[in-house]
Amino acid sequence: MNRRDFLRSCVEWSAVGLAARATVAEPDRDRVREAAERGVERYRKGDFVIRVRGAQGSAPAGVPVNVWLQRHDFRFGNLFRPRHYDNDRYRERFLELFNFVELLEFNWGQYEPDEGRPLLASRRNFIDGWCAEHGLTRFYGHMLVWTRQYGQYPRTGLPLWLFRYDKEKQYELLRNRIQREVRDYRDVDIVWDVVNEPVHVRPWGQWDKPNHYAAPLADVVPYVSDALRWARNGHPEATLLVNEYGIFLPGKWRDRLVQLLEQLRVRDVAPDCLGLQAHEPYKGQYWYAPEELWTTYELFGRRLGFPLYVTEFWYVSSDLPIRGRYRSGQWTPDRQAEAIEEFYRISFGHPSVRAIVYFGMSDADVVRPGLGLFDRHFRPKPAWHRLKDLLTVRWTTRCAGRTDAEGNYRFRGFFGRYRVRVGEGRHAREWHADFLPNGPTQVTLTWG
Fold first, then answer.
1. What domain range includes position 116?
2. pTM of this prediction exceeds 0.90
3. Does residue 190 sit within a domain?
């Protein structure tokens, strides 16, 4: 998208924002739900062909074929912190539902608490070991730049040793840190959160300001531009993302993000995609209406042209008031389950959304009380059962049949990696086949 088109989209977006503030009639809300259902069928599935051929090129008819979806192309994720790497219960539950790993504690203070000693080995052992063994090959690195400071050593947002240096040296060290990380993981399929929350937190170097300081964008754009440019120079093929919260509803934060993206595009350093944090406002208490989600995806996805990653999503199950105009009452485990299912249905149905990361597993180990899919004793909540039914029953493909007169077996299924079995008994053989968006829709298997 060129600058003129981008600016026109911003003007069009303002009308969308005004419309979103109005009360939405139920028929319009139903149309959003229906659009999402159609979107699942249109954008998440395809028509595929298994071509069975004999060793001499024959096309045998009537051969049994079974296909099972093993991994969605869409990225359904959850987080891993280093303390989870050897937690068998955590790992087993993750594998039941998720195929996308959000790697936390990449913020500088936790990744390099001691100068010159980044915690590379433990991350690589996890990625190259357990993840690789279980087919987890796609990751989200959270995050390279975040100017918020918190906690006590070594669990700090920024490394304390950084402040022994003057600001010029700090900026040089930041550049080196960004380029080192993208190079160290250049062989990994990783989406990098290059700058986290730039429209909410203080700009780099303004350490006299509070953590949450909405500076003029003229102070924000330079360091965000440099960070993206440094990451691109460090690994030209890397996927780069800017991550932000508070933008699912019209208001100043959404306005600031749109303006920041426009200025980044003018400088030709815009990110490859956007990270949308979905826990604000009210830290998981706000129940988004379907049209609020859809309007956000239309703006940043279709109008502004960014692939979208929902990077931090949760709803609470605690006895707290439900916020927003869509639903009322108190949060409960059952209402959490209903809200989570609805969020996934709407988001999965929009073509611009590439990933949804639920931000936590057990209530014993989460950033906000009650947001987990399991209670403090790792017993499943209703939300876990709803999500498991959605991802492994409703949104999966399992089918069987026989090759036609031309030796082909045709089926419609979700994009992703499949296990394919041809034949039966001692004559059966198995393969893996990838059917991906914009990829081949047929595969030829030699059997017999």
1. 72-376
2. yes
3. yes
> Which residues, listed in sequence order, are joined to residue 399 by a DSSP beta bridge?
67
Asked if the structure places residue 423 within a domain, the reply is: no
Cα–Cα distance, 291 to 135 (Å, whole number)? 35
DSSP state of 72: E
**Contact present, 355 and 312 (Cβ < 8 Å):** no
Assigned token pair, 118: 């980044």
Domain tally for the chain? 1
List, in order, residues 6 or more apart from 292 with CB less than 8 Å away.
20, 248, 249, 326
What distances in angstroms separate CA 371 from CA 232, 360, 364, one per listed residue? 35, 7, 10
Nearest to 258 by CA among 4, 5, 7, 2: 7
Q: Residue 30 in contact with residue 385, Cβ under 8 Å?
A: no
Question: The domain spanning residue 202 has which CATH number?
Answer: 3.20.20.80
Write out pLDDT tens, residues 114-137. Answer: 999 999 999 999 999 999 999 999
Segment holding 344, helix H or strand E: helix 333-348
In this structure, is residue 53 part of a structural domain?
no
307 occurs within a structural domain: yes
The pLDDT confidence band at residue 83, using thresholds 50, 70 and 90, is: very high
DSSP per-residue codes, 281-334: TTTTTB---HHHHHHHHIIIIIIT---EEEEEE----SS-BPBSSS--SB--HH
Q: How far apart are CA 354 and CA 95, in angstroms?
A: 19
Strand partners, 312: 277
